[in-house]
Amino acid sequence: MRLTGCSYPARHEECATFHNLLLKARQLRNSPHLKHTGVTAAVTYVGVATSLLSAPLVARTLGADGRGMVASATAVITTLAVAAFLGLPRGMGLRFAQQDERSNSGLVVIGGLGVIAAVAAVLAAPHLSNDNPQTTALIRIASLVLVFAGYGRLGDEIAMIQGRYVLHNVIRSATLVLPSTVQILLFATGHLTVASAFAAMLAGQVLAIGMGAVTAVMDLRSASTAPTPWAFSIRHWSNTVIEALTGNLDVVLLAAWSHPAEVGVYAVSVTVANATGGLTQALNQTHYARFAAAVRRGERVSLKRASRTGLALSVTVGTVAAIGLWFAAEPVFGPDFAALPAIGALMIVARAIQDQWRLRVFHASATQKNGMVAPASVAGLVVLVSASALLHAEGMLDARMMAATMIAMGAFRVGLYGLLSRRKSAKIRARVGRAQRDPAVENEHPATAAKSQTEPGAR
User: Which end of the chain is less crowded, N or C, counting CB atoms within 10 A of the terminal residue's CB?
Assistant: First the structure.
């Protein structure tokens, strides 16, 4: 191909370099991963936009107390939906995506666990709501969705792992876009109450679970049967239980040990912070599919580049959001939310750290090397609970202190994960070195070198 303006030999190398860069730019533009990231980010930010539009309407109409009750009930159901299924949705989703296999017994177990979770939510509702009658009623009504939540999660896992981002984002939009849109319409028609606001949230959950369940049934019916992947699923479940508790326990603890108004302000700050993580979340989900594809091809899976990209995005978007929140919080949300700028800034930092953690969990799941996730998760949970209990005992637990506690917990968790991963990688390299020096050791451990290629934290 002739390069325009490159007829002089002295300029040929320079123009060829420019031409190569142009070709790479065109390839990047047509990259499916870039398109998938764009679609996921678009859905995320549509959800963020509707959430930000509805947040001041809900806050002004329900007040900090009403917003806190809705947030408390939602946190309880969300925690159970993630934690109740023994990790089977992700384990079975990976098994199907990589080997086209399903486990009939695993499907039965998922259904049984959904029923158990729903009954447990009904019985424990008074204790989880600090004996608040409205919150208790909301929890019991929402517990019905837990019966089918496992199947919905399984279908969503299959769609995400296989890179079917249109389907995955349609499911996501049911919980990200629909509830806030309905709440805006309720406000416009004068029907926005605590009950109707929570009903909008519940409708999104029902729709998302329904679409995920249909996806799971349609995909799995033609798959060959195989044993239930209990080993990976239980390891993943031990991690997700702790992660789910860590992700929602802040709201639960604040609801139990503080005033509902504090929960309301804290919930709005979480909404704002989540808005800053939309693009990073989209990238994390795209990286998850790429990690799984690399494992299928037997390639080395690297975390460092994905981590740096996500952190840069979080810092850039978070800085802009914190500045905007500082000037617009009280005029937009009302005088009850005067403390929102400081709390929101803290939660933006906590969200950036949380996105880094989720990337590491995705990486560990794709490589099926979850050994370092559990210790770091447990340590983070201990930090969160112990710090919150200490602050409560001293009479200092409020929304601001809970946000600071989330930063400390997140930083400790990510740092400990990195430390444990590096130590394990160093031990593997030491064993490889000994095997190379001593043939007897090499014969005794023939898979050591191969294992190091996909070990988390190896790079």
Answer: N
Q: Is the dihedral of CA 234, 235, 240, 245 positive or negative?
A: positive
Residue predicted with more confidence, 369 or 95? 95
* CA–CA gap between residue 264 and residue 55 (Å, rounded): 11
Residue with tokens 């590491």: 360
Comparison of pLDDT for 31 and 281, the residue scoring more: 281
Among the ranges given (31-40, 64-73, 448-457), the one the predictor scored with the smallest mean pLDDT: 448-457
Structure tokens at 205: 């959950």
Average pLDDT, the chain: 82
Helical pair 146-161 and 104-128, crossing angle rounded to 10 deg: 130
Instruction: Please name the residues in contact with 84: beta carbons below 8 A apart, sequence gap of 6 or more.
Output: 113, 114, 116, 117, 146, 149, 150
Which two tokens mark 293?
Answer: 């594809």
CA 86 centroid distance within chain: 17
CA distance 83 to 181: 28
Mapped onto helix, strand or coil, the DSSP state of residue 101 is strand
Rounded Cα–Cα distance for residues 106 and 225 (Å)? 11
Mention every residue, 6+ apart, whose C-beta is less than 8 A from residue 265: 64, 336, 337, 339, 340, 343, 399
The DSSP secondary-structure symbol of 225 reads E
Q: If DSSP states are collapsed to H, E and C, what string results for 398-416?
A: CHHHHHHHHHHHHHHHHHH
In this predicted structure, the answer to whether residue 4 has a pLDDT above a threshold of 70 is no
The answer for residues whose C-beta is within 8 angstroms of residue 30's C-beta and 6 or more apart is none
Write the CA distances from 439 to 79, 106, 427, 428, integer angstroms.
51, 43, 18, 16
> For tokens 């019966």, what's the residue?
147
Dihedral Cα 310, 316, 317, 318, nearest 10 deg: 100
Q: 103 φ, ψ to 5°?
A: -120, 115
As a whole number of angstroms, the distance between CA 88 and CA 180 comes to 30
Residue 452 has pLDDT above 80, yes or no: no
Q: How far apart are the first and last CA of the chain?
A: 39
How far is residue 397's CA from residue 449's CA, in Å, rounded to a whole number? Answer: 50
Instruction: Give dist(CA 289, CA 162) in Å, integer.
Output: 7
User: DSSP letters along 346-382, please?
Assistant: HHHHHHHHHHHHHHHHHHHHHHT--TTHHHHHHHHHH
State the pLDDT at residue 410: 95
Q: What is the mean pLDDT of residues 226-241?
A: 77
